[in-house]
Amino acid sequence: MTPHLPARTKPDNTRWTGEKAADFLKLLARSGKVAPCARAVGMSRQAAYRLRARAPRFALMWDQAMEVAASRKASSRRRRYVHPLLARETDSVR
Predict the structure, then answer these.
(1) For residues 66 and 49, what is the distance between their CA atoms, to the nearest angstrom?
(2) For residues 60 and 40, what is the distance between their CA atoms, to the nearest angstrom?
(3) Radius of gyration of the chain (CA)
(4) Global confidence as pTM
């Protein structure tokens, strides 16, 4: 007799898994926006904040992801192309 295999069910979008948390943190490091990152992994913004409140390591990694997102945003501002006629004169030719 073969062992009984459970029927396939829909993914459980009511609970955080390690994979969901890792994916959420990767997305958060890119964008710094909690709600869209949580939705992307099938969870709500509120669920993300609840997990942050009860899991200290997750909260630490969340903070690190937000720092990465902030530095990415700052560096993208520095690299943004500005047309020469619109640029501020900070370095004048002598």
Answers:
(1) 14
(2) 21
(3) 21
(4) 0.69
